[in-house]
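Input chain follows. Return structure tokens only.
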Amino acid sequence: MAIHTQESVSGFVASDPQLTQTTKGDPRLYLRFGQEHYRREDDGSFTQLETTFHNLVMFGRSAEHADVRFAKGDNFVAEGYIRPVNYERDGQTVNDEEFVAKKIGHDLARTRYDVDRTPRRGSAEREAPERDASAFASERGAQRGVASAMGL
């Protein structure tokens, strides 16, 4: 079976996330995010270019969870897709785009955090399919000594 892939984006939260509702009453999270850009020079060094800013939206329960967990300045990685949007600003129609995030998480390379693996309320009633992790057991065991240093 083929690997399912989607577009992704990474950056930092540049505005305070805003949780609102759609016209149907569903949760909608909106935030501006920034992306830093660099150019590799012939000598191997990097020159920082102008940071760009973009729109990100998220819907449903994921939007509610992200609203609680993300704040201005957080680094993230998100999965989803880009869609075109049109809106009015100062009497002019603006054609733009936004990233619609289906999933979002803090960027492990830039964020220190602890993982809470306790089941979420209600998830105990649902049975998850068993995963065969035996192929990864020896590899994972070798990595355990490194895990405590990740993200530092």
